């Protein structure tokens, strides 16, 4: 947060070099994480399998925070976040099939041998496939995932790989905290399991001293609403933007509760979904949140010492949507009626003016369905949460026409 007076520092190499020299290490290729092994954590506490470690987490807050390095891996269209602190490793998602060997190689380069916490946000291929390779390549201590099943081969392969490690997938409750490295993480979602698998994403808040990160998987607007209503602390320094910047997430209410100091979007260059979507880019820009993008910048890393964040590069602050023709789905009025607490802040840049030339059919999708609708209140839809987009966009995202309101 700005109140904490964070600043950019482009000195990672210098800092790392100094630290490495001080520690008497020869090379610095493995970055900040490697020199943490100089003072290893007591191995006993590191391997706690206890699912409710609230007290341990609180204890973590009171001691001086050490370094924690967060890597947003460039896995193309997908998500994978590696966190290293005091010799411990947390892996949140592993990217898709095409990135699987990259993810394993990247972890090896960082000196990872064991993964203390493997968190599968949800079981979509672009998140879970790379975890399977990591289960095979590394000694995994604990796997956390959402409590639902997916009727896909990739889900089955993942479960088989977890079982082969002699593990089961743990489903911690919202509010559960875990000691990790010099800090802790807390589960923020899912509060409930629904039909849409993105909405079941395990969302965590990672704390290191005064610094905090939100990892949101592909959480949707429903999940965001539940988090906002939960009373749990959502404010953070770094937001890993949900669902690759899709307009099905990262609504005003959530953003205004999180007020991140930085945002990171993980998506593939030229991805077929048009991620990140203009709505989300506009919101981030309107709030003046510096933006990192893996599609434009590759892997992005940041190190927290408990007070300050040191990034390995500057934010790109490129708020242009993934698809040039994306005019946004925010209607000029009506969608955000009374009841939605967050009123829209004034836009700094261009309003999403649907140009007169747009003859595209506008459709609405609900946050939890698989169909698109000709009106925002079809059936049991909540019009306040319906997302408007063109029929082409909806079809491109895999939605199908609703049999009730679409005559064709
Ligand atoms: Zn997903
Ligand atoms: Zn995804």
Short key terms for the protein model shown above:
24% helix, eight-stranded mixed sheet, single chain, 408 residues, disordered N terminus, 2 domains, alpha/beta, seven-stranded mixed sheet, Metallo-beta-lactamase, Chain A, binds zinc ion, 21% strand
Give your account of this protein's structure.
The chain is of the alpha/beta class and 408 residues long. The protein folds into 2 domains: 66-311, Metallo-beta-lactamase, Chain A (4-Layer Sandwich), CATH 3.60.15.10; 362-401, no CATH class. Helix content is 24%, strand content 21%. It has 12 helices and 21 strands. It has helices at residues 12-22, 31-34, 43-46, 54-62, 100-109, 125-137, 153-164, 221-230, 252-258, 278-286, 294-297, 391-396, and strands at residues 68-72, 80-85, 88-94, 114-115, 117-120, 139-140, 143-145, 169-170, 177-180, 183-189, 203-208, 211-215, 238-240, 262-265, 291-293, 300-304, 309-311, 362-365, 371-373, 387-390, 400-401. An 8-stranded mixed beta sheet has the order 8-7-5-3-2-1-16-17. Strand 7, helix 7 (153-164) and strand 8 (169-170) form a beta-alpha-beta unit. Helix 5 crosses helix 6 and helix 6 runs parallel beside helix 7 (153-164). The radius of gyration is 21 Å and the shape is globular. The model is unreliable at 1-62 and 331-358 (pLDDT under 50). The structure holds zinc ion (2 copies).
């Amino acid at each position: 947060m700005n109140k904490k007076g964070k600043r950019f520092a482009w000195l990672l190499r210098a800092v790392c070099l100094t630290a490495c020299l001080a520690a008497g290490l020869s090379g610095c290729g493995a970055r900040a994480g490697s020199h943490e092994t100089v003072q290893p954590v007591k191995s006993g506490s590191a391997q706690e399998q206890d699912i409710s470690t609230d007290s341990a987490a609180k204890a973590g807050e009171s001691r001086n925070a050490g370094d924690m390095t967060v890597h947003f891996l460039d896995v193309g269209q997908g998500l994978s976040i590696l966190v290293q602190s005091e010799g411990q490793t947390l892996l949140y998602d592993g990217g898709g099939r095409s990135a699987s060997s990259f993810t394993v190689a990247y972890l090896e380069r960082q000196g990872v041998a064991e993964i203390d916490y493997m968190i599968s946000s949800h079981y979509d291929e672009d998140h879970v496939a790379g975890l399977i390779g990591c289960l095979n390549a590394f000694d995994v201590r604990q796997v956390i995932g959402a409590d639902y099943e997916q009727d896909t081969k990739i889900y089955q392969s993942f479960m088989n790989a977890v079982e082969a490690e002699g593990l089961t997938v743990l489903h911690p409750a919202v509010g559960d905290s875990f000691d990790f490295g010099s800090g802790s993480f807390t589960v923020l979602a899912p509060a409930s399991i629904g039909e849409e698998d993105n909405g079941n994403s395990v969302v965590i808040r990672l704390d290191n001293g005064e610094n905090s990160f939100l990892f949101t998987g592909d959480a949707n607007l429903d999940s965001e609403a539940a988090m906002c209503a939960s009373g749990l602390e959502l404010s953070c320094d770094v937001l890993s933007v949900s669902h690759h910047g899709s307009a099905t997430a990262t609504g005003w209410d959530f953003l205004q509760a999180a007020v991140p100091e930085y945002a990171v979007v993980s998506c593939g260059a030229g991805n077929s979904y048009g991620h990140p979507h203009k709505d989300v880019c506009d919101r981030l820009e309107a709030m003046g949140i510096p933006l990192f993008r893996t599609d434009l910048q590759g892997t992005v890393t940041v190190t927290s010492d408990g007070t300050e964040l040191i990034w390995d590069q500057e934010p790109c602050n490129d708020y242009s949507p993934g698809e040039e023709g994306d005019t946004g789905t925010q209607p000029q009025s009506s969608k955000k009626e009374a009841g939605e607490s967050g009123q829209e802040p004034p836009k700094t840049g261009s309003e999403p003016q649907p140009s007169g030339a747009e003859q595209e059919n506008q459709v609405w999708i609900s946050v939890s369905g698989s169909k698109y609708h000709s009106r925002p209140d079809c059936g049991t839809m909540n019009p306040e949460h319906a997302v408007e987009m063109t029929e082409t966009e909806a079809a491109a995202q895999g939605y199908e026409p609703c049999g009730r309101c679409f005559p064709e």
